[in-house]
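User: what does the whole thing look like in 3D?
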Amino acid sequence: MTMAFKNEDSERADTPILEVHELTIGLPSGSDRSSAVQKVSFSVGRGEIVCLVGESGSGKSVIAQSVMGLLPKSLPVRGGRILLQGEDITHAPQARLRELRATRMSMIFQEPMTALNPVMTCGDQIDEVLAEHTSLSASERRAKVRAIIGEVLLPDPDRIIASYPHQLSGGQRQRIVIAMALVLDPVLLIADEPTTALDVTTQAQILRLILELQKNHGTGVLFITHDFGVVAEVANRVAVLRLGDLVEIGPRDDVLKRPRHDYTRMLMSAVPKLEVVERAEVPGAPVVLEVAGLDKTYFSKRWLGADRSVVAATDVNFSIRRGRTLGIVGESGSGKSTVARCIVRLIDPTGGSILLSGDDIATQSRSALQAVRKRVQIVFQDPYRSLNPRRTVAEAMIEGPMNFGLGRTEALARARNLIELVRMPASSLDRYPHQFSGGQRQRICIARALAMEPELLVADEAVSALDVSVQAQVLTLLADIRERLNLAMLFITHDLRVAAQVCDDVAVMSKGRMVEYGTATQVFTAPRHDYTRALFDAAPGRGFDFGVAA
Amino acid sequence: MFAFLARRLAATIPVLVVVAVLVFLMLRLTPGDPAAVLAGDAASPDQIAQIREGLGLDKSIPEQFVIWAGRMLHGDLGRSYYYKTEVTTLVAQRLEPTLSLTVVTIIVAVLIAVPLGVLAAWRFGGWLDRLLMGFSVMGFSVPVFVLAYLLIWGVSLKLGWLPVQGYKRIADGLGPWFTHLMLPAITLSVVYIALIARVTRAAVLETLGEDYIRTARAKGLPESKVLMRHALANAAVPIATVIGIGIALLIGGVVVTESVYAIPGLGRLTVDAVLARDFPTIQGVILFFSLIYVVINLLVDLSYVFFDPRIRY
Amino acid sequence: MASSAPPVPAPASGTAAPDFEALSVESATVVVQPSLWQRVQRNGSVRLGGAVLLLLVVIAIAAPWLGTVDPSLFDPASRDLLPGKSGEITTLEGETIEHTFRMGSDSFGRDIYSRVVYGTRVSLLVGLFTALVAVSFGTLLGLMAGYIRWLDGILMRVMDGLMSIPAILIAIALVAMWRGSLLTVVIAIAIPEIPRVTRLVRSLVLTIREEPYVEAAISLGTPTWKIMLRHILPNTVAPLIVQGTFICASGILVEAILSFLGVGLPPDIPTWGNVMAEGRSQFNEFPHNIFFPGIFLAVTVLAVNILGDGLRDTLDPKMAKRV
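Assistant: Here's the predicted 3D structure for the full assembly of 1186 residues, as structure tokens:
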């Protein structure tokens, strides 16, 4: 199913719905810079979708919240104007802003799991909007609520109205949030990363829904995101932000295919392509990891009620040769992380075998595992929690080797070499984690893993929490390391683009089962399983070439 | 929901068992011989031995526990050495004053503390918030009996508005009952208010930081609705929890308050029993208080069913 | 460009490969924060509570030189003097000297001022030792509960049971059974405080164990005892300091209550509670017996609580959520 590319006649001569002139918003003292955004100007026309893109600290969320008047007092508007349909709302009183919210401008946020009040029914929460802003009777409101629930494509409206948020899935909750936002037909919808927390397939559905509704109601949309695939999918115009400055703005194709600013060009080259980068296979490389029939089921005993068992992964089979990278791709709940953790023996498999260069580590007891641990190492997803905040980088890096008998001086020498290998200065060794950024911490974690001289490196969503430019650097680093050390790598990810860029072989998991397994080229060009096909179809912006002039 | 209720009820039983064991052990760990104490200084070894047998003190500790527990479950809390009556009778006699005091205190405290806590959270960082937090810390810090004496000195002795000490039964008239209870209830409620207000404020502050509050504001709802329907409704569980847990503080305060205000309740009974080394009474009263505490907290936990739909479904 | 971030080269440059390092936003967004110790020192509550507490410690140590006499001295001729009056007092050697009873005298003719000042020693000691005992035992039990699964269930049931008996009652009962002395009072007050510390440490152990850096240590082959020592314990120190401070305040308060009720330290040891207990019967005419020690008590507990609040705000802000 293809998503229609946007109508190019969005540059009509109507009054823009939203105009932002030279907006400057300050930061509290003690921050790394004086303003969150400075002198940012852009506009959103009727029926137009404008994407605000940027990495961390770009100020895109701050701008969105300032339009709605939801900024905390610690972030004051220091200069500029915000005009909603010609009305200056920059310093409007709270009463006026409350009148405008939900009636003329609405906002939806990133986390659907926490965006709804857990103790109120979904129906009541939508009804609240109507009760507050209109004088409709209860039955009229109920009719409207049913109508909007139908419009957001939720089946069985009466059941939805009576249900509580915890009874709905993430995608369903986001539809309720959209329903609340659009029930009064506002002229402006601000969407702050509305699909970032959702699975790829759910994301595709929600994006489609937003586009449909936007088209039917003629709403102008200010869409905040960091995902360029999504930008390619939905934007009419794009504005690129960097640390509070608007560096580039223009029609989508201009900005994404023919970027002019250095920063935008850098970003475009950093976005991984959805095409496989093929590498020559070295014949005769030994098999480092062989997994057969891997099984992990969680049992919970309850002395009241039935025992429950949850199958996290079942019948998983694959192998990795030296120098090759296998990617396991899947959505949340697919079992990919479970497989990774079983291989590193952070959790114990309930069945199957894991052969590491011939040794079965699936069944070994915890104490017997100690000897094996150094041969498999893992890098985790969250760089901010992967290092003990109270220990220096050096201490973190020598901990492993010293566990296996290496003396302190040799361990430190090895640490020094590795820190340079991951392109960080030697002075980093004496510092504490909080003095480093996310990308730098991730490099430290990679160095820490390599200090053990493992045969297999497992990367569990290792780049998912990083900005796109930092992600590109870390991926390049991993590729470099792979070349130099001829490592075998197991790369867990939900991001198809990343998988295409780094993986030689790919396995696709869904609901605990491996549904597809082959070389990257095979899987990406000729997927066999329906699920894999659905996954590719849902990938936003596929077929779009970033940074390549048409 | 029923699984939750059943599990919660069942979880109470081990706790009660542990309480019984602890109370039993507490008093058996004493040096000295309760039989000798009971017999008095002039008793002969034979008489002491007789009393020991009578009290069952010659059996092994686990046996003693089983016998004691068996009697407990039948409602027999033993016989007081000092007062020479059944402990259950004593408890029944002293129940009304303590019950009056605690119930009045709880009602007054909750009605004052919860709104104060909500206000402080709403006006976070403002003068009201800081004032309230200041009073809260003082409420924790000024000992109950010092406060009691302050109030007595100021209100009763100097101003003569309220009676100094004593307790009047409800049967003797609601007016005197109430005036005699006012000072003690105020004294006792201070620390309870301090605790509840503080936790209410913290709970509401935390809910105000949640995403759904941001959604509510983005819908254009007025702050009052955001506070009541969204924040407070979600803070209800931790607030109810602290009201239950604070009862322990209340019971401690009751002991002291009754002592200062000469109220003939269970708190006074405890102190008198301890001074007289009257083990059965001490045991009985502590068991009674603990049981009340466990039951109240059980009720609080069960009330979550009303506050949190995630438990219902 | 008005930002203070590293300047970005102007647009429309050539086709050279983009310099990721220079253009990256990452290094620009790392904020150097003041260290934990600095934050603690700067906090107003810590300063206020700490200063008052320091003053009290000085008073306690310097008691003999602050115009006091031995607190057990009495003189029947100087009974029930009002504050500020002077009278006679008989020393241990038998001499009679003139003495100003700054806070008045009690019904035995003892100097309240001296008894209050010396009482500071007892209160501070009881508070400190109670906190130390409760925190030590609680931490040990909490670590065991967090790490040894089969022990966890039993231990937590026992803790729940202990918490179900109101603390004062336990303390009263224990002191009554064991005869009052500094040791028994400290243990009796500390025992009811242990469950809360145990729960705290246990929950800390359980959450820290889930942290990726602990999982990393496991996969690096670090043995369990080293993980506990190196990764878990250091991250429990801050919340324990906060908890310990509040236990200290509670300890001082409970000791005073016990003494006041007559079930605490023996009457010859001057504690604030004892002084107030002796003055109870004459409160109507001679309130100074109760008010002076009461003020000292309130101020001390207040100082410790304020200190605790400040420490909690800087060291363990999440504590407010844990009931």
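In plain terms: Chain B has a mean pLDDT of 85. Chain B touches chain A through 26 residues (CB under 8 Å).
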